[in-house]
Automatic annotation (TrEMBL):
Cofactor field: FMNH2
Summary of the function given for this chain in its UniProt record: This reaction introduces a second double bond into the aromatic ring system.
PROSITE patterns listed in its UniProt record: CHORISMATE_SYNTHASE_1, CHORISMATE_SYNTHASE_2, CHORISMATE_SYNTHASE_3
Name of the protein described by the UniProt record: Chorismate synthase
Gene Ontology biological process terms in this record: amino acid biosynthetic process; aromatic amino acid family biosynthetic process; chorismate biosynthetic process
Entry keyword set: Amino-acid biosynthesis, Aromatic amino acid biosynthesis, FAD, Flavoprotein, FMN, Lyase, NADP
Highest taxon in the source lineage: Bacteria
Residues bound to FMN: 125-127, 238-239, 278, 293-297, 319
Species of origin: Marilutibacter spongiae
Keyword NADP: yes
Assembly and interaction partners: Homotetramer.
Annotated NADP(+) binding sites: 48, 54
Length: 372
């Protein structure tokens, strides 16, 4: 079985290549009756798109979504939702010189070994262009989660190369091209990225995602753990090399007495667990952190190999992201949304009759148990 689908009750399949005629997805299992129009996709597709600032690839795609099926008179019908975006700005000549070469650090070599053939134009199926359809599918999940459960999902850039935020203010994240949570550092980031771009190099980044309002009880206890599925979904994004939930790898150095999140009638006193215990949500904020490697399509020459095993000098021309993590925020948000909606539907299917269970502990001490 080929692996272009994920999710169980909400099942998403994507298809398409970076320089093919179109990319698309099928979202199957979406409940009927959700208002859905092409306009709903605009905001998140624009947040992810290339060509919006000088700090991302200069390719300018229209990213106009066509809803092919599953919606009638503005409402989802419960049948598969087919979404399509036509590619409008592919420039395949940029890939002529590396069509038979392997970029060190790129999927080129692994695809070649697996399939014995590859579409080198724009990286074909391995291109980050594919993430457009994850974001599109995620729009439906975000909408359903917000309308039915009051859940809000927000991501931000929590590290760019060696630069860390000096403060975290989520209200400023959408106001700068880096999705950065500290407005006072934006000039520093601009200068850093300008110098990086001029040097021809790339850099890694870290993206944090918080989901607020997730009710307790979502997730499966063993093989379908909520954190396990979040890790798999986030890890499946291009260039991701690490995922943490809650304190993640920092937990290694913690004592149990420090890590355990104490419960009081007024709420949890901390959130080291990141909102998941035993693979099941606790009602606290869900916290994930995702590591993106530096992109490998560089104009800096490097010795490499071609498909004949000959040593060649590899130089990648064209329009590339010096830091792909910058526009990965909506992609990470979408993957979290899709996992949550799938788990919500699975929870409803098995445990829909259980109802509210006492005691219900608010996410944070002192906070009212919101909307749930
Ligand atoms: C087009 C997108 O990103 C592309 C991702 C990408 C890569 O190698 O992953 C390389 C570039 O493609 P091209 O060389 O065809 O311009 C990016 O522009 C997109 O995200 O929509």
């Amino acid at each position: 079985m080929s692996d272009n689908s994920f999710g169980r009750l909400l099942r998403v399949t994507t298809f398409g290549e970076s320089h093919g005629p179109a990319i698309g997805c099928v979202v199957d299992g979406c409940p009927p009756g959700i208002a859905l129009a092409a306009d709903d996709f605009r905001r998140d597709l624009d947040r992810r798109a290339t060509g919006k600032t000088r700090h991302t690839s200069a390719r300018r795609e229209a990213d106009e979504i066509e809803i092919l099926s599953g919606v009638y008179e503005g409402l989802t019908t419960g049948t598969p939702i087919g979404l399509l975006i036509r590619n409008t700005d592919a420039r395949s000549r940029d890939y002529g010189s590396i069509a038979e070469q392997f970029r060190p650090g790129h999927a080129d070599y692994a695809y070649w070994q697996k399939y014995g053939i590859r579409d080198p134009r724009g990286g074909g199926r391995s291109s980050a262009r594919e993430t457009t359809m994850r974001v599109a599918a995620g729009v439906i999940a975000r909408k359903w989660l917000a309308e039915r459960h009051g859940i809000e999902i927000q991501g931000f850039l929590s590290q760019l190369g060696e630069i860390h935020p000096t403060g975290i203010d989520l209200s400023v994240v959408e106001g700068n091209p880096f999705f950065w949570p500290d407005a006072g550092q934006v000039a520093e980031l601009e200068a850093y990225m300008d110098a990086l771009r001029k040097s021809g190099d790339s850099v890694g980044a870290r993206v944090d995602v918080v989901a607020r309002g997730v009710p307790p009880g979502w997730g499966e206890p063993v093989y379908g753990k909520l954190d396990g599925e979040l890790a798999a979904a986030l890890m499946s994004i291009n260039a991701v090399k690490g995922v943490e939930v809650g304190d993640g790898f920092e937990s290694v150095a913690q004592k149990g007495s420090e890590h355990r999140d104490r419960m009081t009638p007024g709420g949890f006193l901390s959130n080291h667990a990141g909102g998941v215990l035993g693979g099941i949500s606790t009602g606290q904020d869900l916290r994930c952190s995702v590591a993106f490697k530096p992109t490998s399509s560089l104009r800096l020459p490097v010795d490499g190999l071609d498909v004949h095993g000959e040593v060649v000098e590899v130089v990648t021309t064209g329009r590339h992201d010096p830091c792909v993590g910058i526009r990965a925020i909506p992609i990470c948000e979408a993957m979290v949304a899709l996992v949550l909606m799938d788990q919500a539907l699975r929870h409803r299917a098995q445990c829909g009759d259980v109802g509210a269970v006492a005691p219900r502990i608010p996410g944070h001490a002192g906070e009212a148990d919101d909307k749930r």
